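Following up on my earlier message about adenosine-5'-diphosphate. Here are the inputs again, as you asked, copied directly from the submission form:
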Amino acid sequence: VESKTVGLDVHSRRPPTTEGGFPFVGRQAELVTLEGHLEAATRGRGGVVLISGEPGIGKTRLALELARRAQSEGWQVLYGRASAVEAAPSYLPIIEALGGFVDACSSEALRIYLGHAAADVALLLPTIRDRISDIEQGTTGVAESMRFRLLASVSEFLLSIAAASKSGLLLVQEDLHWADASTLLLLGLLASKLSGARLILLGTLRSAEVDLSPPLTDLLADLSRASMGEHVGLPPLTPADVSTLVVSLHGAPVPHEVIDGLYAETEGNPFFLTSILNQLLRTGCNLGDVRAVRMRKAIPQDLRWVVRQRISRLSPATHDLLRAGAVLGDDFDFDVLAEMLGTRDDLTIAALEEALAADTLRPEGTGYRFTHALIRETLYDGLSHPRRQRLHFAAASAIERINSGTIDSHLAEIAVHYRLAGSQADQSKVVDYSLRAGEAAAALFAWEEVAAHWEAALESMVAQWTDPEVRAGHLERLAKVMFILGWDYYPRQIAYLERALEAYRQTSDFQATTRLHVDLAAAYFRINASTVNQRRSMCHFKAAEALLSAHPDEKLANLRYQNLAAAYTWTAQTAEGLAACQRALSLDAQLAPEDRFGEPRAMGWHLASAGKLAEGAAALERACEIDRERSGIDSYFSYAFRSNLAFWLGDPRDSYEWMRRGLASSELSPQRRAAILCMMAAARAEAGDLDEACRLQAETGWQGLDHLAVLFPAPLIAFRTGDWERARTLWTDARERHRRTGTRWCEADFACWLAQVCRVQGDIDAAKTMLNEALAIGLEAPSELIEMWTRPELAMLCAQERRLAEAEQHLRRCRAIMAAGEQWRGLAGRVALAEALTASSGADWEVGELQFNRALSIFQRWTLPWSEAEALSAWGSALVAAGRRRLAVDKFSAARDIYHRHKVGEPWVKHVEALQH
Ligand SMILES: Nc1ncnc2c1ncn2[C@@H]1O[C@H](COP(=O)(O)OP(=O)(O)O)[C@@H](O)[C@H]1O
Ligand SMILES: [Mg+2]
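Thanks, got it. Here's what our run produced:
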């Protein structure tokens, strides 16, 4: 990637160049706001400011004006822009901003600024390697977390520049509506670290852009959720501003008819206005003469019309030059342009000079840039389809020829130009450049760009009937990229895997076919996407098994068992799961060390499910350690499993703690971070801290079931705060979905929660049905953990209906399970509560009291205030039944106290009152 010179010279402390020479007018209120942010930032309260408005409204000019002022007050200003051009390099705005800084910095200073971030930042700015000799290798690998490590390193670099600057750092990032996903992710990450920094991130974006890219939408949503960042919408200039501008140009008063006319026609859009004024002045019109102004001016229609007017006055050669330039991009090299036009004679040079004189281009660095993006857009959009293709072809060939020595830094450009050249281009070149451009993007973890290049390559391969084996390999790589990109891309991942499988079938490559079946099986069992389908997953495991029995392969067999063991966690097949773990382990032992999986995550889960809690937890903790060392894909996953185990055992504090460790274990994508925050929110809600739970949930921005997080906090929070209807709807929906997809574990889990809400709503039959269905899943697994979720609850319902024999049956089983000596944490309290209710129902007050006390102390020990309140009201009811009303009052009021203390809604308090009377 080449760093580009920018229009704003940040080191010579010259004020930024402002084209056209029009004086700056108006914008006083906006400048006050912006300077207020600078002021706050000098005191360590950095932040984000976004300037938005239609094209030509003056976003860039305002940003430059602020930059000029900041610079004169000792601010470090870094300036970068996104580009509308499809072939623009990933991270362009950041690279632009940092490129000039790095070049101007001494090696010693650079080393200090970069610290341990040097290797990562050098991936974006390779010149750093020439400046600092002994940097280690940068991050490599194909994991999602790698990108976030890179982004974190770049953020650190920016923060240390800010910390070292005299007043602070103003980072200008222009035209974010065109920015690539990686840049936007970086800015989002940076934004989250600004609260103590002397750094202002000033972004500009077009508000008229109808469909914002999803990453930009995400960034804006994140900023507004964190109530971070001020949004400055730019209105048109006022008539007074227009007047000031015109008068200062004319150097003398101007009749108000002239001003009114100009204002009405341009609606105060400064680009519009300055274009018309330029034309008038160029033709020697006297702005003071109303009649002359009227005569010279056609009635303008819109912005693009003005641009077309401007261009139409130019000679045909200049017009041709500009059209070629517009295909090259916002800026270009004259050499490449001349090569594209096939000539660099006097005529071409004269054409360039005319374009410069007409203020359509301006020199920048070693090349030229359109003075405004609107000019390029109008030129480009005005090209007929075949002409556009021809020019793209010419551009690709020209860049290829001119840069033959440094082709590696032009791969994306050439690939995109060849692609846009349509039938003109040699398809094998399209494939070749697209593949290489994708690889270059992958080295920077710019996965969205990788996907774009490789998907284009695929299309060309298909069109050319490329060898099925080559195509299949490519499809497999594309599938991996989709996996890295996250849950929203899983449908595409599966589609590519299916196509790859189809292609391999034509090749009789059994190994590849087997591998594809296993990959598909794994893709279908992942529950965080709309694609989850356990039955299909099992079909692919079966197909792989059949192939393996005909063509044995130990590595693939191991891969299959590993994945199968993981799949069984979701389908709640504990016995099969443990068997698969054993097979995987013994195969592992036979393989060379580097081929081993040694992955105890599924094993830990299955052991815990089977009731071997300590052993299971230990295996999960080992899995966390391995994850941390490998810091690969899904590195938080083992933490999530360990956290869930604690949650399911009724130990929300431990659950929270493990999730917190997961959060700190590696750099995470916003999506995975959100998943972790969801689990933390659920744990806080169970531990009684509803405010914190709501805050954490709000931070994720997820309300409903978007991604089917295992513990999704919305219904839990609704339930605990007293919005039972909402909790019921959400849990019903969740259970239905998991049931449909065959994700039996989650089906059982949500059935148990649903039973809780049914019970407080007085719908005892529904509660029983739910619990019996969950228990059936537990018995089939077989899973002692699921039995321990369901049996105490069923026993309580039976006790309530005085079906004591049935209650006793459930309790007997619970006692047997607990006799093995495992630590059942909060679940032991549920058993004690069930014992208490059963004993009281049978009028055995003594045992009842003993067990109520036990339950209460267990709930207190594990911080389970909701269970505590439930136990107190149940005790109250038992005392009422025993005729000991005076004692009952105490229990009820203690329960009410708990609800009041945790600020839960009316329904819970009413619930206690209903029990009392
Ligand atoms: N406040 C202003 N005073 C004078 N000229 C302005 C002002 N705002 C914008 N302009 C001029 O109008 C043209 C378009 O402004 P620009 O900042 O490039 O718009 P945007 O970035 O919103 O597309 C530029 O030539 C710029 O110099
Ligand atoms: Mg602009």
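One observation from looking it over: The first helix runs from residue 28 to 42. Hope that helps, and feel free to reply on this thread.
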